[in-house]
Every structure is written in C-alpha cells, then in structure tokens.
Amino acid sequence: MRYLFASNLSKLFALILTMQAACSLACAQDVSGQWNMVANTNYNFILDLQQSGDQITGTMTCTNIASEPVDTISGTISPDGTVQFTRKRAGQWTQVYFGSLSDSSGFMTITGSFDHNSQGQYPWSASKTSNPEQLISGIKAETRQAYNPPNLSDYAALADLSGLNRQAIDKKYDASLVIHDQMMARPLDPGEIVLNPPSSLDYSQYVTMTGNQDGWGGCGGRSIIHIMNIIKEMEHPYTPDLSFWYLHARQDELIKNGVQELTKTLVENYGICTEASFPSDYDTAKLIDNLGDRDYSHMPQITDAINHEAGLYKLKKYGKSTEPTVANITSMLIKHGPLLAGGSIPLVTGNYVDHISGTVSGGLVEFTRERPGEWTQVYSGSISNNIDNLYMEGTYTHSGSADTFPWNATLWKSTQSNPAQGSIPSDISGNWAMKANNAYDFSLDLVQQGSQLSGTMFCTNCEGHCVTIVGYDDGIQAFKCLNSYGDTWNGNGYFFLPYEKVAENLGYVISFENLFSDRSSTQHAFSARINVTAQKRNQLIIKVGAEGHEAKTVWDTPCQVECIDNSKTICIDVPLPSYASSVWPPAPNQWYVEITNTGPGTAKVNEVTLARLINETSCLSVGKFRTETYAAQSLPTVTQGDTAKVYVTGEGMVAMPVLMEWFSLKFYPDQFNKFRGSLDVSYPLGGSAAVADREVKIYRKSQPSCLNMPPKWTTVGSVVTGSDGSFTFEPQEAGVYAAAILDSIGNVEASSSEASGSEASLKASSIPPELTYVPKEISKVVVNPVDEMRRPTVSPEVKM
Asked: What is the Cα Rg of the chain in Å?
C-alpha cells in the first residue's frame, strides 16, 4: 500500500511516519513497575512508578537508610521519553527530577539530574528489566525490612542489575544474577517438605567432569553444567559431559537478541552441547579493553550442527528460587537431586560481616577493621556536616601494603541527632553508605557511645557466588557442596556447609527437572569415559578412535594461559567419532584412547570405558534402556613427553545376526483382581507359535524419591507359561506391574506394557491391549550390561 499510493499520499505518509516515530517510545514502553534507583551516587531507592497516559505517580523508598519515610512522587513522561517528577517532604524540602528514558538489551534505564530546594544539580539513574517476570514486584517497598547484613535481600536494591546484560563469564553478571535470584526467593510449598528424611544423601557419585573458573566469573553457569551432567548421568550412564563455553556463547547470543529468562530459555528450549564438541578452552580469549571484554572469535563458533547436538541434552528449570532453610534444602535434594545455590557464601568468597572499633573526637574519626589471621585495615578521616547529609572521607591502610587508599561515607541527617549545618555532630550513629578505594561499596553500621565507636562493615557490591549442593549428612550436620574452583581447591573441589551457617551463606536454592532424552538412535549413543590424573590436566592431549579411522581429539591442553585450569584429574564422558556404529561392537585391539603428556610429572590412566546406550524396542517397560560397556584392562602411566595408546578389550567375534524373531508379550488385569498374560513368538519366514514352559518375571514399578531418577522395577514374582503360552499372576498389593522375559545372560529380552494393579483398575477392563513389537536381533555377542536401576558408582578422583 505504501508504494502503491506514494505518488498521491507521500506527504500524508511522511506525516504519519513522523507521528509514529515520535510516539513509538511512549506507545511501546510503559514505565510502570519497580525501579532500582541511585541518587547522588550514595543514596539507593526503590522507585515504584505507575503510568497513566502521560502522567506518572508513585513512591520513593530509601533502601540504605532504615529510618527514611516513603515519599510520594508525581510527574509526566513525554512522547520522546523525557521524564520529570517532583518529590516533596512537606515543610522541609522539594526535589525535582529530570531524566531521559532508554531501552537496550531488555533493560530500561532513566538517567538525569535533580535539584534540592533549587540548590545545585545532582545525578540520578534508575533501571529495571523490560520483562515483568524479572521485576522486583515480589518485594514490596512498604514491607522491605531494614538492612541486616549479610542477607542479600536486604541490600538487593543497592546493587545494579545491569550486570545481567554482561556475559556468563563476567563477575558483574554473577553478582547481579545472585542478587536477582535472591530477591525472587519464596518459601517452599509446605506440601513439598519431606517429614522423615533419610539421615544422609549424596549425588557426588554421579559427578564426572568438574569446572574451574580460575577467579573469572561464571560460577552460575558452571554450577548449571554440573547439575546437568549429574542429572543426565542419573538418567543414562556415560552420557557425554556438557560444554560451559557453549552455555557462555549461546547466552551472549540470546542477550544480544533481547531474550529474557536466560537460564530457562537456554537449558529448556535449546539445551547444551558436549564439551568434546565445543571445548571450553579460553587461551585465545584475549582482553580488548579495561572493562573485562574479550575477543572470543578464535574460540569454537556456534553452528547449526552444534545447536542440533545441544537439543539432545535439556533440563527444565523447576521453579522460582526458594528460601534456603535446612528443611527446604534437604527436601529439595531428596525430591529433585542436585541444587543450584547462590548467595554471598563467605565460607568460600571470604565476604563476611566484619566488626569495627575506633574513636571519634573533634570531627575526626579513626577505626580498625580486622579479619583475624588474615589482615587488618585502619581507617582515618574527617567529618563534615552538609545541608542534607553528614559526610566522612579519608584514607585507609591494608596490612602488608605501604600504600594508602581513599574512602568516603554518607549519612542522611534525619538518621542522627544533630542536624545543624556546619557544626560537629554529637552522634554519628547510623547506617552509612560507604565506598572504599573507589570500587567497593559497604554498609557501615556505626554505634557511638561517647568517643567510642563500634559497628560492622559489609560489602554490598562484592561478588556473589553460586555452587552445586550435591548432598547432606545429618551425622556431621552439613550440606556437601561442589564448588567451581577445580579439584585442587580445598583438597578435592568440595566443601561442607554446616547447617548452622546456611542463613549466613546462602540466599536461595533452585531445583531442576530432567527433560527426557533418547540419544540411542544417534551417533551420541556411543560414548567413552576417560579418567586420567596428572600434575595438571591442562597438560594432556587426549584422542579417541578406532584403528583404520581418524581419531577424534576430545581434550587438547586447554586453559593454560587464560582462565587457567590447575585441576589434576580429567574425568570426562565424550561422544565417540561419527563412525562408531560401523565398527561396533569393539573387536580386540580395535578401539583405543591415545594420551599424550606434555607437562612435567606422570599421567596415571585411571579408567577407559566405551559405552553404548541401547533402546530395546521389544521392551515397553522393564529394560527399556540399557548400557553396554567395554573397559580397558591395562591402564598405563604416561611419562613426560610420551604418548600411550590404551586399547579397549573387545569381543572375540563381531556381532553376527543369526536369527530374527518377534516376541509378543501381553499382560493385563482381569475382573478377578488378577493379571493375565500370554507369550507368543513370530518367525521371519512366517508363522507364529505360543511359547510354552518359559519363565516370565513379574515386576512392580516404584518411583525413587528423586523425581529425576528413572523409575525402578523390582522383581516380585515369576510364573511359567503353559502349553498355550498363557500365564496368570495375583498381585499382593496395589501398584503398577509389568511382565518380562530374560535371555541367557540376564538381559531383558522383551517386556510388556505397564498395567495397573489397583483394585479399581483390576475390575476396569479384561481386554488385552494390542501391542506391536519391532524385530529383535539375536546375537552371539556377550556384552557387559549396566542395569539402569542399579548403576555402578562413578569414580572420579574428586571424592570426599
């Protein structure tokens, strides 16, 4: 239409475009909601706005001065995004705020200046996410409690959530993520509390690959990768371990496209590809500015094939973050498996509440902050009394350094007893907003008694941290946590968080739900577990392949220069090369893992196992999935500069199909509270027959307490088919049952569909379901099955 009528309506169209452009921001954006606001650098507010047309009203609540009242505001917003509003304290002062609205990468910001009683201009800014789900709406300004360190929810509004626009490996992202998720933390539904929990629980047996952030950011992402690896290992043994670099790169891509709810979108909608296919080697990621930005163009880049692989490995974020009580964490571990936990975690980061003591006299202040056994800081400064605040500034020293560093602090007059401008205050008690060394923000809570000072300091913008909770032990009253600092940190990469320290360290926990994956029909059905311990694992080159084919490099001296990985053990599950299905099962001395030790010391090979996930199409319940494994018997030690090939023990012959046949196993309830069934076999050349005198196992289904664990089938009886292939079974209790037949080595050869054994359902129907089976190949090859219900313990070198 535009082009058809342009000759006659060009002026009108141009006018319409001009009007659309002028009102696009106002039409597209509604500033209603809660904003994180900073005024004059030191004062932090929740700015709660409501917009109606071009009018805005709302409240401002100071979050770092407990005694400040809630003030109302009113003003306007113009079509070009200009914001103006007034804040009045009747009989005291009036402030007029001007600002400009912008929206970038999913975050709305207002920046501008304000005047106080028409005296001077002071800077202010406010920000909030464009996505309503990420608003701080759950934290009502009127019910916000006074600051009480170290609970993050009490200083959440002090922090700038713009770090969520940063990359997953940025510490600013970590800090904003932790604060955001803690602000969203809610109580656990009482129905989710486990009333009689077992005395201990430990999922670390499912841990293989562990991450190492080496002082970089990325603790949240690496914890998510740990959780995904554990849950996928619980689902199917030897599932390939997943790539942190893919999470990092994909998340950066989503941020640039304005996608919100990154964790949910990434792990649930897109998934994560494998580490071996997308190595997290940051050696080529060089700094390009002083903001911490890096050039990642020389690292592996996302392709359609990589994204397709990621789709095989997905989780679902089970819900919003949850308040971290001992009962909540214990119950969530039991029901959902490993948990993402975030907070200040001073047990790991050292960000404790520190006590201070000192003196004040004649407008001069001096106090000491001490971390016993670590360091001492001495602060000295002077106090000034301004129109609307008290202000301190000076320098401090840090033990072990000859340098001095600047600091300053501000306190609103309404929070102390001497408001007279210019005079020396008689009492400086109160909660001061403090900045040290131009970088670190603190809540300085002072109490003055005569000339003596006491109080606390707590850093409000120091990094938050995330870890993976993998278990608990009532015997030692502690939760077992996996950190992301490598396996040399704290001896093995784990630490115990005492129950009594939970509130001090954690701000929230999040659980995840497995999304079923079946890689059995893909090349990822074939995998290998490789476990090697060296002086440093980043000195190793590891390849896997079959003789006569090109080997695949799955580990190549990563992170020696950037994001340095000083871990010792590499225990990683990797997908085998794409030709695996054509050379399977392994013949003797056919498949190998090649290990080159480029560094000092020796490299001890602990395990090399090849695995294949099989979906038994003849099994509709019991034995649906099984994993066959082949392990190397000779595990060498590789000296510096040497390369060793570790061959996997194979079978004496390659699989030779000798017979194709179809089993039909029916199992259904009748009207007499019994199960009836029949077993028949069909032959490839035609014809079928009842299978007489064949043992049929009866199984009862149970769901482990952890919902991310596969169902467990327990043998409850066995019957023998009659001459017509039929059989009956009378259950002793209600439940879900199935029938199965086993081959000569104990593998499930065929199983029926599930049948309910409740009294009501036993009477519901006597008509057997029609079942269709795909032919099963009978082979002379004997494999080593891994029972999906009774898996062997995974044995990485990172054990408590």
From this structure: 32
Residue type at 568 in one-letter notation: K
Query: What is the C-alpha to C-alpha distance for residues 82 and 465, in angstroms, rounded to an integer?
Result: 37
Q: How confident is the model at residue 775 (pLDDT cuts 50, 70, 90)?
A: very low
Write down how long the chain is.
800
Collect all residues with Cβ–Cβ distance below 8 Å to 76 and sequence separation of at least 6. Answer: 54, 55, 56, 83, 84, 85
Distances (CA, A) of 647 to 532, 679, 796: 15, 42, 20
Q: H helices within 337-464, ranges in order? A: 346-349
The three-state (H, E, C) secondary structure of 546-602, written as one string:
ECCCCCEEEEECCCCCCCCCCCCEEEEEEECCCCHHHHCCCCCCCEEEEEEECCCCC
Q: Are strands 494-498 and 508-510 parallel, antiparallel or unpaired?
A: unpaired
**What residues form DSSP beta bridges with 545?**
592
pTM of this prediction? 0.70
Q: Is the pLDDT of residue 140 over 50?
A: no
Q: Where are the alpha helices (DSSP H) in 444-545?
A: 502-505
**What per-residue string of b and e applies to 563-600 under the rule 16 or more CB within 10 Å gives b?**
bbbbbbbbbbbbbbbebbeebbbbbeebbbbbbbbbbe
Report the phi/psi class of residue 530: left, alpha or beta, with left for phi > 0 and alpha for psi in -120 to 50.
beta
Residue 453 sits at φ, ψ, to 5 deg, of -115, 140
Per-residue DSSP letters for 154-218? HHGGGS-GGGGGS-TT-HHHHHHHHHHHHHT-BPPPGGG--SS--SEEE-GGG-----B-TTSS-
Cα 489 to Cα 207, 212, 484, 486, 606, distances in angstroms: 16, 9, 9, 6, 21
> Please, what's the b/e burial string for 253-287 (b: 16 or more CB within 10 A of its CB; e: otherwise)?
ebbeeebbebbeebbbebbbbbbbbbbbbbbebee
What proportions of the chain, in percent to the nearest 5, are helix, strand and coil?
20, 40, 40
Terminus-to-terminus CA distance in the chain, angstroms?
71
> Pick from 370, 309, 679, 769: which is nearest to 523 by CA?
309
Alpha-carbon dihedral sign for residues 324, 330, 191, 701:
positive
pLDDT digits 0-9 by tens, 495-519: 999 999 998 899 999 999 999 888 9
